[in-house]
Write the structure tokens for this entry.
Amino acid sequence: SLSGISCFYVFADVSDKPELAADSAVLMDADTGEILYDKNMDKTQYPASTTKIMTALLAIENLDYDDTVTVSRRAADVVIEGANLDCKYGEQFRVKDVVYGLMLHSANEMAVILAEAVSGSEANFAELMNERAEEIGCTGTHFVTPNGLPDARHVTTAHDLALIAREAMQNEKFAEVVATVNYTIPATNMSEARDVKNSNFMLYKRGKLEVDGVERPYKYDGLKGIKTGYTNAAQGCLVEEAERKDLDLLCVTLHSENDMRFQDAIKLLDWGFKNYKMKTLIPSDEEVASCEVRKGSEKKVAAVPVSDIRVCVEKTSSGAKLD
């Protein structure tokens, strides 16, 4: 079988690119990793709670969902800006419930609980975060905290965050978490049950917002997740993935002024779905080469792709530009 084929292709510059409030943004084809839109995508930015994408991924990769974790004094007493679930010193949770509390409610102490469970300390966990980011291909990322609370050294880029999100969304457990709207964390040894709701309004919210002068619903057709973020320093941050027909798009917006992050994401995804489509270059059953065999029952064997070789092209493209 043939696992990969190098394809070289050129896109004309699609017009009517959206104007965004975000200082940095990127739109990526989630299947191929191709960049369809770039605004300062390699500029260093504060990620705020979009950091928790990496934290959740590492927790899922390194811990068992049914394991029990105990809240340390550090996790209970950590100075919190933003969301928390009032976890108490000595309180016990299942790992699964902590992951849901982290990603839906964006609870900052839940990030510390997971970091300590995986690596023993936040500092050790940050090393693991940075190692994983490097594995994924990030070049402008340096993690210091598991939750993204303000630290001048804790930075990423829109491009890097898209790479991290793409990797995380390929994990089935992670993808299930970020697609969930409501979740109940069961009662613990020190608390009643907690109901948490996803902070990502584009999954479900019935209200509307104005996008380029047009009233639009928050809820976005085909949305799969994934994570919001906000601090005063980072401003509005957002990572979203949506799929329509066979086109799967992932967008990142960082430092959206006046918290225009949802408007920015809607503009980017709309633009992507309007202008691009997937094109199959080589079907999985098509022979692309044959190899002679010196010893064997057959003198030649066919080389075929493991799966369809596909690229994201402009809707106006016939594919003639493909080499």
Observations:
- The chain is about 25% helix and 25% strand.
